[in-house]
Write a structure and sequence with these properties.
six-stranded mixed beta sheet; 38% helix; binds nicotinamide-adenine-dinucleotide
Length: 492
């Protein structure tokens, strides 16, 4: 096996914004630290409204003047394919920039994040010349059409949990559809997006079409949301921030929004599963992957009484087997928590849930790694009250809340959440029960006898209710970056 380990001090960080095809530094506003060892990595400048304005105006001008939207769509596709190739060629460099400040272990950024990013760019490139609009059935004296056109400039705001992949789900369909775009990565993970944008220019994308501005939500994110030249917003993050984004979009437009928000996704396990061990592996991965810092974390286990005891025992045994290594270590597979306040919030939530009556089956505790860093062990809590904080709130950490049930109706009732509807998992040998679950569960995605996305980019992803509006991935994500213009021509 290749040793992928590296030393953070050996990495050259692109510190700054990316404007008009150049890294623009200056300003030391935001300290970026590594969750892997707590070290200070860099100070990053923050873009205020003036810089956001410059980024949006530049993107608008370049989008208008460069021919990006008006060239033969296959030419746009060719640039995007070259971009994907360059991402693969710079896989190690991008993976290190991602790993150094985030929770993503180097084995996973090399093995999953970067290949997934490259293939995602190829996926959206394939839509460039596939979606043009419709010709309407009118009388022969008229020609009626509904034609798609880009918005001009879109705004993209991304979270820290999968910095590159999440950002790419917003900017790539937008660029493929012919727009310019302004991206704000999370202030905690600002580096890899700059390199991604540089590679786009290297691939032949007009400089200034894809700009990256650094900063916090209040200083920079708000300015993007409210900018008059930004015609559409795509946001991934918490439900609370999503509401603020939508408010800003309403007050400054109104402009359309795609919102990919939080979740509290249930996993339903029925007595008829064929292998407790296999299902335990799946459930365990689903709440400990990226240390639970995944929007679709399967954080609520709803298990039928006949299989509850062996399944819970198998999960508790797995909790004791994780080891903490800094993300850049060759042995790293379990992720740190992104920040100290986030770790404290998780521990408080667990403590409050226990005080409110939840029973701790596996304790969520601080773990030590050789290099320091912020690690929490996977925890499991048995709950009997649906009002328990760990049953209600998005933990965004490695904590599983468990309830048992007797019959299917009880399971479906427990799966309901008053706010979230992002994803759900169903584990059963009965296809008729699975079909009933698919129809009953209020979730944007239902996985049956698996948990988590595949590389089938064509399947859209997005939540219901408080989990969001619209879809990332799929044809739908491409179409969301286009607006429909109706045309009626008198031809006689
Ligand atoms: P967050 O809401 O704190 O921040 C997300 C982004 O929004 C950051 O870039 C932040 O700087 C920016 N922001 C903050 N306030 C803003 C404001 N007022 N206006 C504009 N931008 C603002 O979320 P986070 O902690 O970075 O990410 C974790 C959350 O993201 C979790 O709730 C998780 O479920 C969600 N998430 C959802 C999906 C999905 O596909 N549904 C995917 C990943 C993460």
């Amino acid at each position: 096996m290749i040793d992928l380990s590296f030393r953070p001090e050996d990495i050259t960080l692109p510190v700054g914004h990316f404007l008009s095809g150049k890294v623009v530094s200056g300003g030391k506003d935001i300290a970026v630290t590594s969750p892997g060892n707590g070290s200070l990595l860099a100070y990053v400048p923050e873009a205020g409204p003036e810089l956001v304005h410059e980024a949006a105006q530049t993107a608008a001008r370049v989008q208008r003047e460069s021919g990006w939207a008006t060239c033969a769509p296959r030419e746009r596709a060719r640039v995007l394919r070259r971009w994907a190739d360059l991402v693969e060629q710079h896989s190690m460099e991008l993976a290190r920039l991602e790993t150094v400040c985030s929770t993503r272990p180097i084995t996973q950024t090399v093995g999953w994040d970067i290949p997934f990013l490259a293939e995602g760019i190829r996926f959206f490139s394939e839509y460039c010349d596939k979606i043009g609009g419709d010709v309407a059935a009118t009388s022969s004296s008229l020609l009626g059409m509904a034609i798609y056109e880009p918005y001009g400039v879109t705004g993209a705001i991304a979270p820290w949990n999968f910095p590159l992949v999440m950002a790419s789900w917003k900017v790539v369909p937008s660029l493929a559809a012919g727009n310019g775009t302004v991206l704000k990565p999370s202030e905690m993970t600002p580096f890899s997006a700059v390199r991604l944008a540089e590679l786009a220019v290297e691939a032949g994308m007009p400089a200034g079409l894809f700009n990256v501005v650094q900063g916090t939500g209040l200083a920079t994110g708000e300015a993007i949301c409210r900018h008059p030249d930004i015609g559409k917003l795509s946001f991934t993050g918490s439900t609370r921030t999503g509401i603020a984004v939508m408010k800003a979009a309403a007050e400054s437009g109104p402009k359309p929004v795609t919102l990919e928000l939080g979740g509290k996704s249930p996993q339903l396990v029925f007595n008829d599963i064929s292998s407790v061990d296999e299902v335990a592996d799946r459930i365990f991965r689903a709440f400990t992957g990226n240390a639970g810092q995944v929007c679709v974390t399967g954080s609520r286990l709803i298990v039928q009484r006949g299989v509850a005891e062996p399944l819970i025992a198998a999960l508790v045994a797995r909790c004791g087997q994780v080891a903490a290594f800094a993300p850049w270590a060759a042995a790293a597979s379990y992720s740190p928590i992104i920040s100290e306040p986030q770790a404290q919030r998780i521990l408080n939530l667990v403590e409050n849930s226990v005080k409110a009556g939840a029973q701790s089956l596996a304790p969520c505790l601080r773990m030590n790694s050789e290099e320091g860093g912020i690690f929490l062990s996977p925890g499991i809590l048995l709950v009997t009250d649906v009002k328990s904080p760990v049953w209600q709130e998005e933990v965004f950490g490695p904590v599983l809340a468990v309830q048992t049930f007797d019959d299917d109706d009880e399971a479906f009732a427990l799966a309901e959440h008053p706010v979230y509807g992002l994803a759900a998992g169903v584990h059963t040998a009965s296809m008729s029960r699975a079909m009933r679950a698919i129809r009953t569960l209020k979730a944007g995605t239902v996985w049956v006898n698996r948990y988590g996305r595949s590389s089938d980019f064509v399947i859209p992803t997005g939540g219901f209710g408080g989990s969001g509006i619209g879809k990332d991935l799929g044809r739908q994500a491409f179409e969301a970056n286009l607006r429909l213009k109706s045309v009626l021509m008198a031809v006689e």
